[in-house]
Amino acid sequence: MPEGTFKSFDLYESDQNYQFDIIFCTEVLEHLLYPEKALRTVLNMIKPSGIAMITVPDGRIDTYLGHINFWSPESWNIFIKSICNNCDIETGLIENGKTNFAIIKRK
Question: Distances in Å between the alpha carbon of 26 and those of 7, 23, 31?
């Protein structure tokens, strides 16, 4: 994607100088002490009408010792909806049945 701009950020520090059409945050939030803060950072960096795709393991079957957050599909949906006000949200399990996803669209 030669026209694309790719950036790496500290998810706890929002940078209002950057707004993106698409943000991918995959297999990260389960490692963080403050996933709510990180998710708010992602939301703040989505352009109006932009989208974020976020994934985490299904907490019902996840046994990795490096994870500190475990979300079932139901608790993942509640977590996302509690933070993503004024967004269109779709949550569910990816076909492999091992990964929760959230697609978040700014209104």
Answer: 15, 10, 11
What is the C-alpha to C-alpha distance for residues 43 and 62, in angstroms, rounded to an integer?
26
* pLDDT tens-place string over residues 21-64: 999 999 999 999 999 999 999 999 999 889 999 999 999 999 99
Q: What is the DSSP letter of 80?
A: H
Tokens for 40, please give them. Answer: 């708010």
**What's the per-residue H, E or C state across 16-48?**
CCCCEEEEEEECCHHHCCCHHHHHHHHHHCEEE
The residues pairing with 55 across neighbouring beta strands, listed in sequence order, are 26, 101
Q: Whole-model pTM?
A: 0.89
22-106 is a CATH 3.40.50.150 domain? yes
Tokens of 101: 């996803």
